[in-house]
Design a protein that fits this description.
The protein is α+β, with helices and mostly antiparallel strands. It has a single domain, classed as SH3 type barrels, CATH 2.30.30. It has 1 helix and 5 strands. It has a 5-stranded antiparallel beta sheet.
Length: 96
């Protein structure tokens, strides 16, 4: 019984760390992976550098992103931070 009371706080601390830090991080990584794998032509994406562009070409590990008119860059898919689909307006767009 004495050994149980000695190890119980350690087990509880490990469980708390897992559920508060590790598990949410794993879920965010899984969600990001799903978003990146579902990128399609015409999607608006935000790159890890903060650059916003429109996907014009999708390859296995890279995407072509148009960042200005007639300016296309090739980006590794893992560097896409956020995927905004076609129909999703930006937060600061005026509704006119």
């Amino acid at each position: 019984m004495d050994q149980l009371t000695t190890f119980a706080p350690l087990v509880l601390m490990f469980a708390a760390v897992y559920f508060l830090f590790l598990r949410p991080q794993q879920q965010r990584a899984k969600d990001h992976q799903n978003q990146v794998s579902a990128i399609k032509r015409g999607d608006t994406v935000v790159l890890s550098s903060g650059t916003i562009g429109k996907v014009v070409r999708v390859e296995e590990k890279e995407v072509g992103v148009e960042i200005a008119q007639n300016v296309t860059i090739k980006v590794v898919k893992s560097m896409v931070a956020e995927v905004r689909t076609r129909g999703e307006p930006a937060a600061n767009d005026a509704k006119s």
